[in-house]
Amino acid sequence: MGDAVTRALERAWDWLSVTGLAIALWVIGAILVARLIGSVLEWFEHRVTRQRHDEDAIVLAEDAKHRRAVLQVIRWVAISLIAFIAGLRVLALLGVPVSGLIGPGAVIGAALGFGAQRVVQDVLAGFFVVTEKQYGYGDRVRLVLSGGAIAEGLVEDITLRATRLRSADGELITVPNGQVLEAVNRSRDWARAVVDITVGDDADLAAVNDQLTKSGEAFFADKRYAPLLLDAPVPLGVTEMGTDTYTVRVVARTQPGRQFDVSSALRGYLMADLRRADLGWQHDQPPAGREVE
Question: Which ranges carry the Mechanosensitive ion channel MscS domain (predicted)?
């Protein structure tokens, strides 16, 4: 009895000192390599985006946003590849014939593929989001999802499986990429601020348009707002007629993501000029302009 126990302990020690140690080294090595790759990619990501934030860190340069998304994909693929290689080596050290797993693996893969169609759909959709540069980190987007739901906010993270948005209320929204039917990017290249001004039906529309044009040029020349604009705001004329009012629309091209700031400031600027010119501005207007991409 004692000899059997001794032999069992010796065999266990031999296995641990040879096979067990090799397995532990492979597992520890895989973890260390994965962490090293993650650290290197994180350092490179900070290096790429460090000097590309504006004052409020909302909008990144287009190339930096794309690089950040690509780095996220590289990290995911690299860690998955390391885990796969380490898993194969552990199976080989345990004496499991890898070639014999081809048949069962195909069956298990088919079952998993059938049961994880949504995950595969998310990953493929995420791949195209990144490669086609539909949106990136720091973009302000509006996503139309399956079932008609809408998610809107600032992109905080993109992976192959999901996109994370920060809403205006501070909520973190996680959206599976495969559920996105339509993506509206409000931070690509340029955006547009739209302000609707209501005047009375007795107002001289030609004088109103002339005053709005002059006010737009003055607004564009203002040092506080010039960095946010690509050109001077211009009136588009009457867009709506009420029973005793006209609605005149003014539009301006802005830097990506700054249309909301410009719209608010431009509305106050125009209203003040119309008051001074006594051109029939209506005091019962809604308090804020309408902003679109």
Answer: 119-185
